[in-house]
Amino acid sequence: MCQHQPPCPSADSADREAAHPVAYHPEQGWSLLCNGVLLFEDTGELLPDGQIIAPHRPLGAKNIATAA
Fold first, then answer.
1. What percent of the chain is modeled with pLDDT above 70?
2. pTM metric for this prediction
């Protein structure tokens, strides 16, 4: 599917989010990557085979607890 050189990561690769966007709709909160992955602004993903990847936002400093 990808025509880039070097080719973008496949949809089943761990770094699949590094693929080039082919459709970008920030007003709707999603992008379609050239490997067929739908990437949502909340960091959730929909893979071409229908598998759902839950959002995986990094925790901000205010959400990190420290031991006393």
1. 82
2. 0.77
